[in-house]
Amino acid sequence: MASKSYEKMVEEIGNMSVLELADLVKLLEETFGVSAAMPAMAAAPAAAPAAAAQEEKSEYKVTLQDAGSEKIKAIKAVKSLIAGLSLSEAKDKVEGAPSVLAESASKQDAEKIKKELEAVGAKVVLS
Question: Residue 67: in which H helix or E strand, if any?
């Protein structure tokens, strides 16, 4: 609980005009050698979590950059990983690399596709 003197001071400040408050702030700054302005560093940590949240995407574009030396294994993997893709479409994607395998895959699906294709020697990029 605040002391009586603090309560009286707060009450007096509450009764001041904007000009009187500006003068008070200036006097306090000069008397104690401080600044009432918010330091730039104080704002930076608040922005950091927003940037981290922004980096964490919910959807990824999966691009096959290179099929590697095991094209047949890569074709089979693409066919099994991408729902609704025929064998000839999977072959076209592998032979046409770089090619987009998924436009908006979930993080889990994108990582699964990448992991399984890299296991057969393919090069995959998530963006």
Answer: none
- pLDDT (mean) for 37-53: 54
Record the tokens describing residue 108, joined without a space: 């889990």
How far is CA 60 from each of CA 64, 94, 105, 110, 121, rounded to the nearest angstrom?
13, 19, 5, 6, 21
How many C-beta neighbours within 10 Å does residue 58 have? 7
Calculate mean pLDDT across residues 87-97: 89
Structure tokens at 81: 């990983």
Counted residue by residue, the chain has a size of 127
Q: Strand, coil or helix: what is 58?
A: coil
pTM of the model: 0.54
Q: Give the three-class secondary structure for 15.
A: coil
pLDDT at 123: 92
Task: Give the bridge partners for 125, in sequence order.
Answer: 63
> At 86, phi and psi to the nearest 5?
-80, 170
